[in-house]
Amino acid sequence: MPPQVPRQTPLQQPHPAGQRLDAARHLMPITERPAEVFVRGEGAWLWDAQGRCYLDWLQGWAVNALGHCPPVLAQALQAQAGALLTPSPALHNQPSLALAERLCGLTGMHQAWFGSTGAEANEGAIKLARKWGRARRSGAWEIITFDNAFHGRTLATMAASGKPGWETMFTPQPAGFAKARWNDLDSVRALIGPQTVAVMLEPVQGEAGVRPATPDFLHGLRDLCDAHGLLLILDEVQTGCARLGTLFGFEHYGVRPDILTLGKGLGGGIPISALLASREASVFEPGDQGGTFGGHPLMCAGALAVLEELARPAFLAQVQARGTQLAEGLRALSAQHGLGGVRGAGLLWALELGDTRGPALVAAARQRGLLINAARPHCLRFMPRLNSSEGEISTGLDLLAQTLSGLPARAQAA
Ligand SMILES: Cc1ncc(COP(=O)(O)O)c(C=O)c1O
User: Fold this and answer.
1) CATH superfamily, domain at 312-414
2) Which atom of ligand 1 is nearest to the CA of 236?
3) Distance 115 CA to ligand 1 centre (A)
4) Does domain 90-309 have CATH number 3.40.640.10?
5) Which of 114, 146, 258, 264 is catalytic?
6) Which is the catalytic residue, given 131, 146, 217, 235?
7) What domain of life does the UniProt record list for this protein's source (predicted)?
8) H or E element: which one contains 288?
9) What is the mean pLDDT of residues 383-406?
10) 374-387 pLDDT tens trace
11) Bond preceding residue 172 cis, omega within 30 of 0
C-alpha cells in the first residue's frame, strides 16, 4: 500500500486538461506522453498533479534503483551541495576520485571516466576502442554490434544500435558498425576482418524487449575476442548496478569485459554514467575525452551513496528473491491468459503477449494505478525499484492481473 501522505499540496492542484496541453506545446514532441503531470515520488510510488497514486514499475526507466527520492541519496546530495558543486572538470574533486576508486575495485577495471548519460559513456567506449585499434591493432576501427541493440541516441550510438528503422534516420550515419545476429556466434565470426577492433553488446537487450544473451553466446564472444585480439565491450547501462541481481551483469554470466559502460541505476535518479576500461584497454591520453559536467562532484557523491547500498550482499540477495517472486507471478499470468512466456533476470523482466496489445495494456494499467512499459508492442517490460518489498511485488502482480482480465478500472480520485 502507498505511504500515508496528504493527497494534495498546493503544488498538486488539478489542472484543467487544456492547460496541461497548452504547456506541453512548448516541449519538442519527441515522444508520446500521457496527459498526467507527475509531481511527487516516494519509494515505489508516484503521484500525479491530481493526487492520484501509482505503483511505479518504470522507475525512471530502470534508473531509480532505490525508488523515488531515497533518503540516502537525498542526504548525500544535500551534504555535497553545501560543500562544493563543481571546481571545474580540469581540477580534481574528492567524490569523483572516490567513485572511480570504488567502481574500479568492484568491477576489476583499471580506470574510469564519468559522463552524464548512457549514450555519452557508450560514445566514449567507441572512441576508446578506435584509439586502441589505432595504437594496438594496425588502425582497426570497426565494431561488431547486434540486431535490435540499443546503445543511445547520439549519432554514433544510434549507428551502433540495431533498432529497426534507425539505419535510415539522420543519415549519413557514422560508419564502422557491422551488425551480427543476436545469440548467433557464427554471424559474428563471419564479420570479423582486419578492420575489426571490438564486439559491443548488452548482456540483456533491454529496449529490444528484455532479450538475454545465452551464456554460451557470451562465453563464445569472449573466446572469439581473445582468439582474434579484439576488445569485448559490455554496455551495462541498463543491466548494471544490481538490476540483474548481481552487482554487474557480467558477474551473472561469469564473463569479463575489456570495456564496461554504466548509467541509469548508477545515480539512482541523478544523471551520471561511467566508462570503465581494463589496464590494457585504457589508452586515452590528455585531450582525447572530456565534458564540462564529467565527474561532477554532486553526481559522484550521489552515485557513491547509491552504490554502497547496491553492493551489500544482503541487498543483492533480496533483489534475487523479489525477482523470483515477480517471475513466478508473471509465469502464472502468462499461463492463465495463454500468453507467450517471460524473459529476464533480477528485477528486469518482460512478458511476451503474442499480439500487439502492449501500448493499450500500458494505458489500461495506468488507469488502475500501475506504471509499466511496452518495450515493443508485443511485450510488457517491468523495472521495479530494486529494494521492492514482497507486498509491492504482490500489489503490482494483482494490478497486472486485473489489467489483463480487463476488470473495471479503479474509481479515480479528484
Ligand atoms: C543498454 C542501454 N545503453 C544505452 C542507453 C542510453 O542511455 P541514455 O538514455 O542515458 O543516454 C540505454 C537507455 O535506455 C540503454 O538501455
Assistant:
1) Aspartate Aminotransferase, domain 1 (3.90.1150.10)
2) 1
3) 13
4) yes
5) 264
6) 235
7) Bacteria
8) none
9) 98
10) 999 999 999 999 99
11) yes
